[in-house]
Design goal:
single chain, about 425 residues, 17 helices, globular, 11 strands, binds pyridoxal-5'-phosphate
């Protein structure tokens, strides 16, 4: 018993040091042998030290999760508990001070005047489109290489998404293709800052000004990403963020935000989120329940001061990936045209599916963002662009992109493990 508690207190660095001594040994064996060994040790050994050793061993070397937020949250636990206790003591579970405080902190962070919290990023997009007065008979120009929510929000507003193809290098909306898609029905352009890099907002804003169109940014993946000194969220008439837990700034559930410099649009977005009700039981427009929980706002307020440092750790991890992947001609690493906060680190590789399976066999989780472009999704049947060949770049990259594990606490050893496995794949094919 005494021995167990001593080892339980053994600092992680010490365990890691022991593990690192075994590094050369590790290189001689495949991951599966170690997983097998680990299971045997867990089953047969009553020795806590040995079991802890193998658990750390597997965590450090033999398994790379796609996202792991436990290390990010652990140092903030006392702060989380404090704000939970505060909310419990006031019973202000929806809206209230926690939401108002986070709204003003987030508006300041983005460099805009108004922020309106939402129940999700999807709700935020719908709120923004409605606040911009976009509805039936309106076209909204957007990208098909995005998460479904971008397009769902346009459709739920009653408008029609018109897709322009993406840039071959950044995978964001290609500004050169926008003007050909503008018709008298076009009301807005809705670019997505995909993977953590802003779309070319200078070019997009110039086109919007020329044609008198609104711009709504989908910044769900770009908290803190900049072009020059300006942050995502500060370029358009309105912008929308998601705080889904795995985002660079993530809640403990669903939450989102609309930001803008337009007081009237902010006012309408707030009404839309709360049953169109400026005063209790008075409803001036048709709204929804898109409100943000106080607990989510409080969690986000605790996490926000760390966002820049976490983004920097993602940039550093991305730089290591890119440097280690150098020389592999079949792998195209991401191209950062502007400041990139690497919500996702996405490579492009022709043998994508085979590589993903190979990584899975080595317990390395990789993702697909996104395997089917929006215009080819069954939900878009009947849309004028719902055919193969309509958006050649988006269609081509959908079969070649692969998102590698990325989170602020990813270790150098984990990155090297991933790259080592990718190199092994190419040397064996
Ligand atoms: C580009 C993009 N837009 C919108 C959303 C929707 O956000 P939420 O999941 O918070 O509704 C997401 C979330 O993944 C997203 O990645």
């Amino acid at each position: 018993m005494k021995r167990r508690s001593q080892i339980g207190r053994m600092p992680k660095q010490k365990v890691c040091f022991i593990v690192s001594l075994c590094n050369p040994l590790l290189r001689l064996h495949s991951t599966s042998i170690f997983l097998h060994l680990d299971n045997t040790v867990r089953r047969q050994s009553g020795d806590f030290c040995l079991r802890l050793f193998f658990t750390e061993f597997i965590r450090e070397y033999a398994m790379v999760p796609f996202v792991d937020l436990s290390a990010l949250h652990a140092p903030l636990q006392a702060e989380f508990e404090r704000v939970f206790r505060e909310i419990l003591s006031t019973s202000a579970f929806i809206g209230g001070r926690a939401v108002a405080e986070f709204e003003s902190a987030f508006a300041q962070f983005c460099g805009v005047q108004y922020a309106v919290a939402a129940g999700s990023g999807t709700a935020a997009l719908h709120m923004a489109l409605t606040a911009c007065g976009i509805g039936p008979n309106d076209d909204v120009i957007t990208t098909a290489h995005t998460f479904a929510a971008t397009v769902e929000a346009i459709l739920h507003a009653g408008a029609t998404p018109v897709f322009v193809d993406v840039d071959e290098e950044t995978y964001n909306m290609d500004p050169q293709k926008i003007e050909a898609a503008i018709t008298p029905r076009t009301r807005a352009i809705l670019p997505v800052h995909l993977y953590g890099q802003c779309a070319d907002m200078e070019a997009i804003s110039a086109i919007a000004r020329r044609h008198n169109l609104l711009v709504i940014e989908d910044a769900a993946q770009a908290h803190g990403a900049r072009i020059g000194q300006r942050r995502a969220g500060s370029f358009g008439d309105m912008a929308c963020f998601s705080f889904y837990p795995a985002k660079n700034l993530g809640a403990f559930g669903d939450a989102g935000m609309v930001v803008t410099n337009d007081a009237d649009k902010a006012r309408i977005a707030r009404l839309v989120a709360d049953h169109g009700s400026p005063d209790k039981y008075h409803h001036t427009l048709l709204g929804y329940n898109y409100r943000c929980d106080a607990i989510q706002a409080a969690v986000l307020a605790v996490k926000m001061p760390h966002l820049e440092a976490w983004n920097e750790r993602r940039r550093r991890a991305a730089a290591r990936y890119t440097e280690r992947l150098r020389g592999l001609s079949a792998v195209r690493p991401p191209r950062a045209r502007f400041d990139h906060i690497y919500h996702l680190y996405v490579i492009r590789v022709p043998q994508r599916d085979a590589l993903k399976n190979f990584l899975a066999q080595r317990n390395i989780a990789a993702g697909l963002h996104y395997p089917v472009p929006m215009h080819l999704q069954p939900m878009m049947a009947g849309h004028p662009q719902a055919r193969v060949g309509a958006l050649p770049v988006a269609e081509r990259i959908a079969g070649e992109i692969l998102s590698l594990p990325m989170f602020p606490d990813i270790t150098d050893a984990q990155i090297d493990e991933v790259v080592g496995a990718i190199r092994e794949f190419f040397s064996s094919t």
